[in-house]
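Need a sequence for this fold. Nothing fancy.
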C-alpha cells in the first residue's frame, strides 16, 4: 500500500512540475499559442443578392480559357516600363517562391520539386508565344509542376508577369 501511495505521489509531483514548466514557458513565449490568436471568420456578412436582370454575356476568364493559346495577345504593350515594373512586383509576390530570385527554378519551395520548376530565362520559355505563357500560368501545365493560377492571380497581373519574364531575355 505504501508503495502504491509513493508511486502516486511521485507521479503527482512530476505532473505538477511539467505543468509548471509549460505554464512558465507559455507566460514568457514571445508569440501567442494557436488558441490565443484571433480568428478570422470569413463570410460573416451575407453575400449581396445579385440583380436578376444582370447576366454576363461575354468577357471574363472563360474568354481566355476558350482562346487559342498560340494566337492569344496581351491587352498591354508588354515592352512598356510601367508594365514590366508591375510584372516584377507581381513576380516577387506570386512566383519567386518556386522560380527563385535568379529565375532558375531554385526558389525556396521550387528546389524541393522533382522536376524543378522551369528556368524562366531558358530558350524554351523565352521563345514561347505570350499567349501560351499566359495559358500555362493560368491553367497549369498537364503533367508538370506549374499550378493553375487563374483563380489566384488576376488576368492583368498575369500579363504583367509575362511582360517581366519576357524582359529577362535568354540566359547567356
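Here you go.
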Amino acid at each position: 500500500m505504501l508503495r502504491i501511495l509513493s508511486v502516486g505521489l511521485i507521479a503527482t509531483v512530476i505532473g505538477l512540475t511539467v505543468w509548471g514548466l509549460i505554464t512558465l514557458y507559455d507566460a514568457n513565449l514571445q508569440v501567442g499559442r494557436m488558441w490565443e490568436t484571433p480568428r478570422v471568420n470569413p463570410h460573416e456578412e451575407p453575400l449581396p443578392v445579385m440583380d436578376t436582370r444582370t447576366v454576363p454575356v461575354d468577357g471574363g476568364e472563360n474568354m481566355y480559357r476558350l482562346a487559342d493559346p498560340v494566337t492569344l495577345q496581351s491587352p498591354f504593350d508588354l515592352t512598356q516600363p510601367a508594365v514590366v515594373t508591375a510584372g516584377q512586383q507581381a513576380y516577387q509576390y506570386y512566383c519567386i517562391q518556386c522560380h527563385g530570385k535568379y529565375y532558375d527554378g531554385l526558389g525556396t519551395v521550387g528546389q524541393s520539386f522533382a522536376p524543378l520548376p522551369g528556368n524562366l530565362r531558358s530558350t524554351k520559355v523565352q521563345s514561347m508565344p505570350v499567349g501560351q505563357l499566359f495559358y500555362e500560368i493560368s491553367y497549369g501545365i498537364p503533367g508538370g509542376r506549374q499550378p493553375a493560377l487563374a483563380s489566384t492571380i488576376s488576368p492583368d497581373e498575369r500579363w504583367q508577369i509575362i511582360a517581366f519574364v519576357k524582359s529577362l531575355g535568354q540566359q547567356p
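For context: The chain has a mean pLDDT of 85.
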